[in-house]
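Recall that a protein's primary structure is simply its ordered list of amino acids. Everything else, from secondary elements to tertiary packing, is in principle encoded there. The following example makes that idea concrete.
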Amino acid sequence: MTVSPAGSPTGSPAGSPAVFPAVLPTGLPIGLAGPHAGRAFESVPGRPLVPPGGRPLDQGLQPAAPLPPAGQGIGEFPLLAVDIAAFGDPRRDDEVQLHLRRTLYGHLEEAFGMTRLPWPGCYREDRGDGALIVVPPQVDPGDLLAPLAHHLTAVLRRSNKMASDTAHLRVRLAVHLGGVHHDDNGLAGHALLHLFRLLEAPAFKRALHASGGDVGVIVSEHLHTVARARGGFFDPAAYRPLKVRSKETRTRAWLWLPTTGRPAEAPG
């Protein structure tokens, strides 16, 4: 299906609302609003729906019902933010930083596959020294906790055995569950703000540094409550409470760290 630049599907009456619907493979609808209003889309079976010059918003999207107006939230999603620890270390020149970025994305994709999380179906935004990842809403958000952390720890342990000190990759992950908004410049909303406040919390940085581990995960109170209620593979004993003071944010979060580690670089 092609949607005309005027905002109406080909063959639709003139003046129809500019709506760009899609559904996830499971049939759950999500909204593609904001920057997509008034732009052409190409829908090819088996391929993501992509705006001109944009990135896929999900894998295998197909036409569905009309969506909310631009600027309205597009639902509650599992959210993950990742940051490379000490990325700006003066010993890490451009070549090392590019290597770390490639390694990060490769390891994330591998760990997602091991956890059976749909890496191709996730919305991703690069953040220079990390990334924002929005996971499709039908995915159990609890899978972003210890299951993913254990797999990422194993992948990093394998690759870091052969890495120099400057190329040794350590990462911080923040995970949350919340609403997402979409405008002309990307994603926004209080949930994303909270996610990055957790990621950048000084107490979290200090905890990972002190542990000497390669992976640290900070979990929002909301997601921890949801995961604990659902049970499954969730192990409450694997997390400890952490008081977070990050800019204007004052909250309690939950910290997961691997059981063993090695001496770490200064937090950053």
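The longest helix spans residues 94-114. The chain has two domains: 1-69, 76-256.
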